[in-house]
């Protein structure tokens, strides 16, 4: 896929020496959903702000849609939209007027049909005449998305789009994001709910202390860094394991009544090794009554990766 956004050596140092971005290189492909993961203060919002013109980089290059953002930012910026983390909008405006005004800010002619389509897609049409201040938190966040979509962007930033939203509304937001992608909108999202990234993202980037530590296809990352964990309930308690079992990455737990396997070594072949382990147990005459196997989630990988990064620092 062709690149829609390219960052090269992007850095931001604030007065006082705080380095919010440290030489970030990143290419975003047209039509993908890219999830940027990192702890608080990692640099996610600063990176978004730099692309959207809210933060001036200290050094580096931003190219969007083939335009250098430092020299030709107007042409590129008109094709970019941001749904911010904070609920910052005119609370006294009716929903319909606020969304229509956002379209006009980018020099587009009024289009009642398009505004209606956006509001209906976000379940806001019935609320179109209500003041934003009267809406629930989830509805206010939908208004922010509607305002961002009003000028028909090709690249959409979602900074914590479901923060403070209940589970039901979060699922609704996921459906909205999926629908936007189906229209060809490229989406970059940050989120604390890592299951969102696991469910929706094509690629994932991990950022910490202003440095982009890893970027990869989500499935490839999970296969390479994931682990398999299995808990095997033994029919009888044991105080030790024979050599043919001890050669696996296992240990006895719960007074010798349970055998825990942790392995895979990042190859994605943990399930095969668990199958070999069960065969070895049978061959050794060790009976078991149950087995529970799980694969690492993206959140497991994220937490482990940041922990290892912290240990190495």
Report on the structure:
With 313 residues, the protein is of the alpha/beta class. The protein folds into 2 domains: 3-223, P-loop containing nucleotide triphosphate hydrolases (Rossmann fold), CATH 3.40.50.300; 227-295, 2-Layer Sandwich (Alpha-Beta Plaits), CATH 3.30.70. The chain has helices at 44-51, 73-77, 95-105, 112-121, 137-149, 167-182, 194-200, 218-225, 243-246, 270-283, 298-312; strands at residues 3-13, 19-29, 33-37, 59-64, 67-68, 80-83, 155-159, 186-190, 203-208, 211-217, 228-234, 250-253, 258-263, 288-295. It comes from Erythrobacter aureus. InterPro entries: AAA+_ATPase, ABC_transporter-like_ATP-bd, ABC_transporter-like_CS, ABC_transporter_ATP-binding, P-loop_NTPase.
Number of domains: 2
What is the number of helices?
A: 11
As laid out across the biggest beta sheet, the strand order is 6-7-8-3-9-10
CATH secondary-structure class of the largest domain: Alpha Beta
Level-2 CATH architecture of the largest domain = 3-Layer(aba) Sandwich
Uncertain stretches: none
* Biggest sheet record: 6 strands, mixed
Number of strands: 14
If you consult CATH, what is the topology of the largest domain? Answer: Rossmann fold
Please estimate the helix content: 25-40%
Alpha-carbon distance between the termini? 35 Å
| Molecular shape | elongated
Q: Estimate what percentage of residues fall within beta strands.
A: 25-35%
CATH superfamily of the largest domain: P-loop containing nucleotide triphosphate hydrolases
Structural class: alpha/beta
What value does the Rg take, in angstroms?
24 Å
Order of helices and strands: EEEHEEHEHHHEHEHEEHEHEEHEH
Q: What average pLDDT do the residues reach?
A: 87
Keywords: ATP-binding, Nucleotide-binding, Transport
InterPro entries: AAA+_ATPase, ABC_transporter-like_ATP-bd, ABC_transporter-like_CS, ABC_transporter_ATP-binding, P-loop_NTPase
Organism: Erythrobacter aureus
Protein name: ABC transporter ATP-binding protein
């Amino acid at each position: 896929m062709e690149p829609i956004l390219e960052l090269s050596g992007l850095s931001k140092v604030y007065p006082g020496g705080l380095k919010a971005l440290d030489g970030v290189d990143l290419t975003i492909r047209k039509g993908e959903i890219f999830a940027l993961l990192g702890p608080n203060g990692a640099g996610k919002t600063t990176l978004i702000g730099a692309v959207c013109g809210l933060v001036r980089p200290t050094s580096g290059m931003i190219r969007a849609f083939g335009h250098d953002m430092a020299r030709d930012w107007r042409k590129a910026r008109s094709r970019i939209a941001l749904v911010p983390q904070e609920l910052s909008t005119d609370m006294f405006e009716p929903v319909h007027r606020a969304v229509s005004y956002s379209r006009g800010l980018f020099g587009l002619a009024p289009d009642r049909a398009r505004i209606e389509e956006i509001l209906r897609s976000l379940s806001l049409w019935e609320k179109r005449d209500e003041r934003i201040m009267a809406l629930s938190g989830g509805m206010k966040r939908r208004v922010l998305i509607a305002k961002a979509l009003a000028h028909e962007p090709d690249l959409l930033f979602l900074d914590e789009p479901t923060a403070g939203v209940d589970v039901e509304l979060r699922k609704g937001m996921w459906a909205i994001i999926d629908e936007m992608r189906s229209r060809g909108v490229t989406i970059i999202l940050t989120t604390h709910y890592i299951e969102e990234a696991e469910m929706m993202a094509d690629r994932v980037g991990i950022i910490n202390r202003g440095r982009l530590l890893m970027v990869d296809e989500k499935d490839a990352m999970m296969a390479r860094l994931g682990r398999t964990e299995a808990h095997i309930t033994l029919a009888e308690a044991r105080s030790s394991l024979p050599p043919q079992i001890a050669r696996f990455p296992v240990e006895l737990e719960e007074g010798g009544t349970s055998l825990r396997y942790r392995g895979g070594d990042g190859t994605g072949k943990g399930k095969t090794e668990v199958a070999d382990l069960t065969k070895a147990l049978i061959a050794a005459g060790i009976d078991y009554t149950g087995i529970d196997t799980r694969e690492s989630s993206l959140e497991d990988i994220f937490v482990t990766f940041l922990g290892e990064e912290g240990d190495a620092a």
